[in-house]
Write a structure and sequence with these properties.
The complex is a heterodimer of chains A (about 250) and B (about 325).
Chain A (H helix, E strand, L loop, with lengths): L5 E10 L2 E11 L4 E5 L6 H9 L6 E6 L2 E2 L5 H7 L1 E3 L12 H9 L10 H12 L14 H13 L5 E5 L7 H18 L2 E5 L3 H7 L2 E6 L2 E6 L1 H6 L1 H8 L3 H4 L2
Parallel strand pairs in A: 3-8, 3-9, 6-7, 7-8
Antiparallel strand pairs in A: 1-2, 1-4, 4-5, 9-10
Helix pairs in contact in A: 3-4, 3-5, 4-5
Chain B lengths: L10 H20 L4 H27 L7 H17 L4 H16 L10 H21 L1 H4 L5 E2 L4 H27 L1 H11 L1 H6 L4 H27 L1 E2 L1 H4 L2 H14 L6 H19 L3 H16 L3 H25 L2
Antiparallel strand pairs in B: 1-2
The chains are: A alpha/beta (about 250), B mainly alpha (about 325).
């Protein structure tokens, strides 16, 4: 078997008395889209924060192309090729859309590939924000700001892209467009994508595989169709049915 | 494509800059400035340089320091000691004073982990600790009685142009800083330090770098100040008033703008000069009032006010044109 692009082994994070993430393992192949689902508080965003370097893990290891990278700060992981987006979009409000992306384009894993000032407009074109280049992020709709968040991450030329609910919260038409954009990122750039998402149709149609987290543990893993039928997954989302326990 | 980045230094800006520096360079001879006015302008040059360097931290990076007097003092006393120790050329002493101040500012590295008001409060504490430390270090600063430098009228005369040179250098550096990708990253850190890290900006590195650069310039200004007054004492050089002055000048002029600190420093020097003589009790109150007005109504200070006026004038010109265009 080839080396996975990203491997997570026994990854745990403790906040005081709370074990937010409890020995999670997962692998992402080159060019794969892995969906991460789970109820609120399952540890999905914590997982991203650990992999992207925003938080240091309590224990466990993260491998990028087989090299251990856990515990490195976020800005160094970006250079290695791991970049995340945020559930609540965080544009630099005082910079124009183009400048937002330029800042990101200055860093990243394949810097030689054209200068930052050239790459930024290309990325804006790709996500469909080229006409908004000179505006401030505040002038964009929520969907626009999600595209900007994506553009900023893409400008670093990531090898692994961690998307934290890029589709949730926008209208259905926008959601379809954003889902298509995520698929294009994988198809045209070969980027490995891990996406946390609550919009089930999007997760089910985009993901090659899905991992389900609950209370910090991985409770299921498999193809989207298998995972939704998994009894523990049904229980995590809907609770136990009293009817089914009856004889 | 319309997405081409603007030139780093557009020609009109470069021309205006060169013209302004040239005019100021010949002004003392051409206008026959009295020594009093020339000295006042020299002092303004030093304060402008300091305020602009403060603005790199407070305006671009968003780390409001209330402790920049520490670097001003270190620069001043190190260059004074070098000048007292032997026949070193004054510019070399100023430069070494500046470098010492830049290095000294890196001592604040742990404080740079703090953001916003927490950072500001830490700098107040650090600034006061430095002031007390140097006041008690009598061997170096002469304690409360200070240090006297040999008076050199020739040098004091030439200080005008040294000060002008420093301002020109700092203005050019500020412009480049604001327009370069380096400046963009500073503004990104100011907006959201974590999000900046998430796209690869090393906030720690840039903050240290800018703090050291800012400290160096303020230190050089302190060195020139020591030569200007020929007498310095720690409570003045390291005083909290001085740290506040850097903040005031920049806030009055326009935080985060390129030329705001220039306006702010000129207004500050003029106000102080006229008010200190006639109303010594009143002038601090006036600054306080001005500061409140600016923060409440025009966060970009005088620069914001000028921009507003410019828009008004342009709007008036545009309105008749639009009326004529109507059928």
């Amino acid at each position: 078997m080839t080396t996975p692009r990203l491997s997570v082994r026994r990854l745990s994070k403790r906040f005081g008395g709370l074990l937010a993430l409890d020995g999670v393992d997962l692998d992402v192949a080159p060019g794969e889209i892995l969906g991460v689902i789970g109820p609120n508080g399952a540890g999905k965003t914590t997982l991203f924060s650990l992999v992207a370097g925003s938080l240091a893990p309590t224990s466990g290891e993260v491998f990028l192309d087989g090299h251990p990278v856990a515990g490195r700060p976020a800005h160094r992981l970006v250079r290695g090729g791991i970049v995340r987006t945020h559930q609540i979009v965080r544009p630099f409000a005082n910079l124009t859309v183009l400048e937002n992306v330029t800042v990101a384009a200055l860093h990243g894993s394949r810097r030689a590939e054209g200068s930052a000032r050239r790459r930024a407009p290309e990325v804006l074109e790709f996500v469909g924000l080229a006409e908004r280049a000179g505006q401030l992020p505040g002038a964009l709709t929520l969907a626009g700001r999600k595209r900007l968040e994506l553009a900023r991450a893409l400008a670093t030329v990531p090898r692994v892209l961690l998307l934290d609910e890029v589709i949730a919260g926008v209208n259905p038409a926008e959601a379809m467009a954003l889902a298509a954009l995520v698929r294009r990122i994988r198809d045209e750039r070969g980027t490995s994508i891990v996406m946390i998402e609550h919009v089930m149709p999007a997760v089910m149609s985009l993901s090659d595989r899905v991992v389900v987290l609950d209370h910090g543990r991985k409770i299921a893993e498999g193809t989207p169709a298998d995972v939704v039928r998994h009894p523990q997954v049904v229980e995590a989302y809907l609770g136990t049915s009293t009817a089914s326990t009856a004889p | 494509m319309s997405l081409r980045p603007p030139a780093l230094v557009p020609l009109p800006v470069a021309a205006a800059f060169v013209a302004a520096v040239a005019l100021l360079a010949v002004a003392p001879a051409a206008l026959g400035l009295s020594p009093y006015s020339r000295n006042l302008i020299t002092l303004a040059f030093l304060l402008i340089s300091g305020a602009m360097a403060w603005n790199w931290m407070g305006g671009f990076l968003g780390q409001v320091s209330f402790g920049h007097a520490a670097m001003f003092g270190v620069g001043g006393f190190v260059s004074a000691q070098i000048l007292l120790a032997g026949p070193a050329p004054a510019p070399l002493a100023w430069l070494l004073g500046g470098l010492a101040a830049g290095l000294f500012s890196l001592g604040a590295h742990p404080a740079l982990r703090l953001r916003g008001p927490y950072f500001s409060i830490a700098t107040i504490g650090l600034g006061e600790a430095v002031r007390l430390g140097f006041t008690y270090w009598e061997g170096f600063t002469g304690g409360a009685s200070g240090l006297s430098l040999p008076i050199d009228p020739e040098l004091k005369y030439r200080l005008y142009w040294w000060g002008l040179g420093l301002v020109a250098l700092v203005v050019a550096a500020t412009w480049l800083l604001r327009r370069s990708t380096f400046g963009l990253q500073l503004l990104a850190i100011k907006a959201d330090v974590d999000a900046a890290g998430d796209v690869g900006v090393s906030a720690t590195l840039y903050q240290d770098l800018v703090f050291a650069l800012s400290g160096t310039v303020v230190g050089v200004a302190g060195g020139l100040y020591a030569s200007y007054f020929s007498f310095i004492e720690p409570n003045d050089m390291f005083g909290f008033d001085r740290s506040i002055a850097f903040v005031l000048m920049t806030v009055i002029g326009g935080v985060g703008t390129v030329l705001g600190p220039v306006l702010g420093a000129v207004v500050f020097v003029l106000l102080r000069q006229f008010l200190l003589a006639s109303y010594p009790q009143l002038y601090l109150g006036l600054y306080g009032g001005l500061l409140i007005l600016i923060i409440l109504f025009e966060p970009l200070g005088l620069t914001g006010l000028l921009q507003r006026l410019a828009r008004l004038v342009r709007g008036r010109q545009a309105a008749p044109a639009a009326a004529r265009g109507a059928p």
